[in-house]
Amino acid sequence: MLGQLSVLEVYDAIDTTMDATPPRLPAAVAALTQRRGRGRTGAWHSPRGGAWITVFLNAPPDPRLPTAVGGYLAGLLEEFLCGAVHLTVKWPNDVYAGGRKLAGILVEHRAGMLRVGVGVNVYNEPPPGATSLAQLGYGGPLALVYAAIIEAVMRAAEDPAGGVAEAAARDMLWGCRVAIESPEGLVEGVARGITSSGALLVETGEGTVELACCHVKAWSCSNTRPATKSSPAGGD
Questions:
Q1: Which of 37, 72, 126, 164 is deepest in the core (most CB within 10 A)?
Q2: Rounded to two decimals, what is the model's pTM?
């Protein structure tokens, strides 16, 4: 997948890889540390030892991409752990291990470029409530993690449906009680899967709603997802 890039830039320190301006596309910009890294809901802790990178593509926006990248990335990172840990996807854009955040994804389309930013805790000390690949048993080079991120993004751009299906099979929120901030207000209910369009189904007291772009404010999981549920729920 690295061979598909026209430009690969690596900085010792940068404000944020999301604001870089590569000369050609497709490109990737990585940094050993970010001074002002950001995620969907605010600042992203980006110290040395983690993998912080943005992939820049000449592609249109696609609301499925955050979830699709998460699905592919979870599968690739899980391979590094030799099957010892099962990684899940917390809709819409995070990778988790054992209830702790491992990676996050931020997708923006501006200045004529699709920007897919990914941060993975590797050898850095993760913030409270998070984990790292090192804590999960990984001992390989940081370069392999960067390569996996680029591969996940490229796969998602080429086949977003496949990435969404992978995320749906790893859906951390299935069966959990959730509180989600949507443009229409707070939605509370039980998560019932990720659709093929990348939306989250939530069963409320007034019926099932489909949420395309929102923030999961809170969740509580006491139910175990059925082992046979391995495909996206619902339709487009």
A1: 164
A2: 0.90
Chain mean position to CA 93 = 4
**Nearest one of 143, 166, 129 to 53, comparing CA atoms:** 143
List own/partner pairs for 170-173 with CB under 8 A and 24 or more apart.
Answer: 170/71, 170/74, 170/75, 170/86, 170/87, 170/88, 170/89, 171/88, 171/89, 171/91, 171/225, 172/88, 172/89, 172/90, 172/91, 172/96, 172/221, 173/90, 173/91, 173/200, 173/216, 173/219, 173/221
CATH number where 90 lies:
3.30.930.10
| Size of the chain, expressed as the number of residues it contains | 236
One domain for residues 198 and 184: yes
Total domain count, the chain: 2
Same domain, yes or no: 143 and 203: no
Question: Where is the domain boundary, 169, 185, 200?
Answer: 169
Q: How far apart are CA 133 and CA 124, in angstroms?
A: 9
pLDDT by residue, tens only, the chain of 236 residues? 555 899 999 999 999 999 999 999 999 999 999 997 776 656 767 899 999 999 999 999 999 999 999 999 999 999 999 989 999 999 999 999 999 999 999 999 999 999 999 999 999 999 999 999 999 999 999 999 999 999 999 999 999 999 999 999 999 999 999 999 988 899 999 999 999 999 999 999 999 999 998 889 999 987 555 433 333 333 32
- Interhelix angle for 142-158 vs 160-169, to 10°? 110
Which structural domain, as residue segments, surrounds residue 55? 2-169
Nearest 10 degrees: CA dihedral of 218, 221, 227, 233? -30
